[in-house]
Design brief:
By secondary structure, the chain is α/β, with parallel strands linked by helices. Helix content is 38%, strand content 19%. The strands form three sheets. A six-stranded mixed beta sheet has the order 1-4-5-7-6-11, with helices on both faces. A five-stranded mixed beta sheet has the order 8-10-9-12-13, sandwiched between helices. It has a two-stranded antiparallel sheet with strand order 2-3.
Length: 327
């Protein structure tokens, strides 16, 4: 077991599955799939598996082609990954919605679709145009029938969730975000392993308030927790990791204990997945006080001061927790 970056953990998962599945293919756009360990060891998918199995370099930037080719390979029986930048995932939506997610149903269960849509998420950071700062597209994909959705927040979960996604016989949308790529990462085993879908993890136990967040909002929550604790509030922090299927049982068990639920996301306020989390818990637990924080329904601004004002950051989370305790 070694210290590995988020990117290395992800590509290690892909490499291990490609070695085990000679027909597996990896389609990407302009980001060559390469990562390095602190020891200097380089993992380069193109160099190891060749340009036929890692199609991307030299091809035109065409997200529909990349997605369609990967889905076609999966329909023919090969495991396939299409890796797209965040602002380009919208081009894949029709293919995933009308083809990948529905193939098993439309063939009466005779066909599978071992396809992973890997979305390199955007970031709520300054200096980028609106189309480069959108976060929360996972809310689009959880609404697609037949599609699972996962969002890792650290390197250990990234490798395990991506391995599980590749091995799943049906389509999985895998989202990663730049905010969670840096900083101290947990140890990542060298061998292949899975993080099961539908199993949330309790990052911190507490008894006053249940706080639910997934990447990239987990970073802001991590910054907010010490100040919330200094205010005398005991927070139980839960990271779902898997949005679909969602571990409602773990969320409801916590809310039943605390009777207060705060959900934080970087996606837009209206129609964000946080609303679904609240609805699921409310159906299971009565008399729960709830609150959600999300990005307003506006495009991300280029000015840093405006982005800070809009972003659901640590101060806003602390304030929301205090208000919920007073409610």
């Amino acid at each position: 077991m070694a210290k590995k970056s988020f990117s290395y953990a992800e590509l290690e998962a892909v490499a291990q599955e490609m070695r085990a599945n000679p027909d597996m293919v990896f389609f990407y756009e302009y980001q060559r799939p390469v990562a390095t360990l602190p020891t200097g060891e380089v993992l380069d998918l193109v160099r190891e598996f060749g340009e036929v199995r890692t199609s991307g370099r030299g091809w035109p930037i065409d997200e529909q082609w990349i997605t369609g080719a990967a889905i076609g390979a999966a329909a023919a029986g090969s495991k396939a990954i299409a890796r797209l930048p965040s602002m380009a995932q919208i081009y894949a939506l029709e293919y995933v919605y009308n083809q990948a997610g529905k193939l098993r149903s439309m063939t009466g269960g005779q066909a599978s679709m071992p396809f992973v849509l890997w979305v390199d998420g955007a970031s709520r950071r300054r200096g980028s145009a609106g189309q480069h700062t959108d976060v929360g597209a996972e809310a689009l994909y959880v609404n697609l029938p037949g599609v699972k959705v996962v969002v890792p927040s650290n390197a250990y979960d990234a490798k395990g969730l991506l391995t599980a996604a590749i091995r799943d016989p049906d389509p999985v949308a895998y989202f990663d975000y730049p905010e969670v790529r840096g900083g101290e990462q947990p140890d990542v085993p060298d061998e292949a392993y899975e993080v099961p879908f539908g199993e949330a993890v309790v990052r911190q136990e507490g008894g006053d308030l249940t706080l639910v967040a997934w990447a990239p909002a987990t970073v802001d929550v991590g910054r907010a927790l010490p100040e919330i604790a200094s205010a005398g509030i005991s927070v139980e922090f839960i990271d779902p990791r898997s949005l679909k299927p969602l571990d409602v049982e773990t969320l409801a068990r916590s809310a039943r204990k605390t009777r207060r639920l705060l959900v934080v996301e970087h996606g837009h306020y209206t129609g964000g997945f946080s609303s679904h989390v609240i609805a699921e818990v409310a159906q299971e637990v009565s008399n729960v006080k709830v609150r959600k924080i999300a990005f307003p329904d506006v495009p991300g601004p280029g000015a840093g001061s405006m982005m800070t004002w809009l972003r659901p950051d640590a101060p806003k989370i602390v304030d929301a927790a205090k208000q919920l305790m007073r409610a």
